[in-house]
Design a protein that fits this description.
It is found in: Nucleus, Nuclear pore complex. The chain is mainly α. 78% of the residues lie in helices and 1% in strands.
């Protein structure tokens, strides 16, 4: 390094010194400042070209030397820094190179990874494809297995159907054989039954013919007796009065010998009242059907049997109450006289045939409320007379003739139905109250003294006509026709002045018979 000092020019020296100081200031700002090669070269050139002109002024020489030393130091520092900076540059370049290499490595690794990923994807795709093919294979195997299972099921079902068809054919063959056997037995049985039926019909016809002949004989005898009495112009009123008194005494004995003893024994009374409830219920449920009649008869027959097993007192009390309830039921159903009378009489006459003791209770109860059924009559001018004739009194007033006649008509319908009900050959018993009692009834009514005749008497005969006319004519023939003509014409004319409504109705029944030439009962056989 060469330094020239020009002593002749202080200003140049100062300028140079200032330039040097500026350079030093720049170099001394920041130790971390980076210098390139150009800056180092520039500093060197400035230092080499710095020439100080000798100067006589010695005072400033030391400073310059110090500055030069300082500059040298700075130069060394600059060189050191340059080297350091170059080293840093090299390190930076190496770092960048490493980073570049690293990036290249990463790029290479990325490509490798991408390749591996692609390969993995291919492997996965291949695996998925393999799994898909495996799944399809398994599905096909499953379908094939299902098809084989279905085929086996169908084969088994077909085998079962064949077996079932074979079994059914065998059963049909067996049934056909059994049917042929049964048909043969049926034909043989039918033939035997037909033969037995024919024999039974012949026996039945014979029995009916014998019964008919006996009934006709009995009826003719009764008719002859009644005709003889009619021919003489009277009915033996004493006999009628005695019969009425007999039934009146029976009613009194029932109260004394049956009702009172039962009431005195609580246990017996409770049992009797249980029978009472059942009897009322059964009669209330009775309808106009043969099935109901048969069922009611069977139920009451069982009840009578139970009461009989408990002793004579309970048994007779039960019979008495049945008769009383039967008459009351007929009386309460007066507006349905025919519909009520026929089934009620059928049940009663069947029970009568089962329990003969029932008869006296039934007739006694009928006579008490409807004395016309035995031809009884008396004056109703007195209270005693009205009581005897069965009038009802409520709140101190006697019932009207219309109400009384309606009740008498209903009870006479039951009486008439009792006499004409057929028991049938199957019952194999004698009728307990046959049609001859109807002859006695009509004969006594027609021979009753005129002054004793009431509208109720004509109502009773008209009701009897509705129920019994055909059976009466069948039993007594010409004699019956004479009696019926007399009742509808001559007998009704006797009370023409009183203009009884029931007499007019009876006369119309006779006119209908005359015009049609045939008697027609007002009821139909039970279904």
């Amino acid at each position: 390094m060469r330094i020239v000092v020009d002593s002749d020019s202080d200003s140049d020296f100062d300028d140079t010194l200032n330039a040097r100081r500026r350079l030093l200031a720049e170099l001394s700002q920041d130790g971390n400042m980076s210098f390139g090669a150009t800056s180092v070269e520039k500093v060197g050139n400035l230092l080499d070209e710095l020439v100080l002109t000798p100067e006589p002024v010695q005072r400033r020489y030391e400073d310059h030397l110090a500055d030069v030393a300082h500059v040298e130091q700075l130069r060394d520092d600059v060189n050191s820094r340059s080297m350091k900076m170059c080293s840093q540059v090299d390190e930076s370049q190496q770092s960048r190179e490493q980073k570049r290499l690293q990036r290249l490595q990463e790029i290479r690794l990325g490509k490798q990874r991408a390749k591996e990923i692609a390969q993995e994807k291919e492997r996965i795709a291949a695996e998925l494809e393999r799994q898909k093919r495996e799944k399809e294979r398994l599905e096909l195997e499953k379908q094939e297995e299902a098809r084989r299972a279905e085929q086996r099921r169908l084969d088994e079902q077909a085998a079962k159907l064949r077996a079932e068809r074979d079994r059914q054919e065998a059963e049909r063959a067996a049934q056909e054989a059994e049917k042929q056997r049964l048909d043969a037995e049926k034909q043989a049985r039918a033939k035997a039954e037909q033969e037995a039926k024919e024999a039974a019909e012949k026996a039945k016809e014979k029995a009916e013919q014998e019964a008919k002949e006996a009934a006709e004989k009995q009826a003719k005898e009764a008719a002859e007796k009644a005709s003889q009495a009619s021919a003489q112009g009277f009915t033996n009123l004493d006999d009628v009065n005695k019969e009425f008194a007999h039934y009146k005494d029976l009613i009194a004995s029932y109260k004394r010998d049956l009702v009172a003893p039962v009431s005195a024994q609580p246990a017996v009374k409770a049992g009797c009242f249980a029978y009472k409830t059942k009897i009322k219920t059964k009669l209330g449920q009775l309808t106009y059907t043969k099935e109901k009649v048969v069922r009611t008869r069977a139920e009451l027959r069982t009840l009578f049997g139970e009461s009989k097993a408990q002793g004579d007192l309970v048994y007779r009390w039960t019979l008495n109450y049945y008769a009383k309830a039967m008459v009351s039921h007929a009386e309460s159903q007066a507006h349905l006289a025919v519909q009520t009378a026929v089934p009620l009489a059928m049940v009663t006459i069947l029970l009568w045939s089962d329990y003969p003791e029932l008869g006296e209770f039934v007739i006694a109860r009928l006579v008490k409320k409807c004395p016309q059924v035995i031809g009884y009559g008396c004056s109703i001018e007195t209270e005693e007379g009205r009581i005897r004739m069965g009038y009802k009194r409520e709140d101190g007033r006697w019932e009207t003739q219309e109400a009384y006649s309606e009740r008498i008509s209903a009870m006479t319908a039951v009486f008439a139905a009792l006499t004409q009900t057929k028991l049938g050959v199957k019952e194999n018993i004698k009728h307990p109250y046959p049609i001859k009692h109807s002859w006695v009834f009509i004969a006594r009514q027609l021979n009753k003294p005129t002054e004793l005749l009431l509208n109720a008497d004509y109502a009773a005969v008209a009701s009897w006509w509705d129920i019994c006319c055909e059976r009466f004519q069948l039993a007594f023939g010409k004699q019956a026709n004479k009696v019926l003509h007399l009742a509808a014409n001559g007998w009704t004319a006797v009370s023409a002045q009183q203009k009884y409504p029931a007499a007019a109705r009876l006369h119309l029944l006779g006119e209908d018979w005359n015009s049609s030439g045939k008697l027609q009962q007002a009821w139909k056989p039970l279904a």
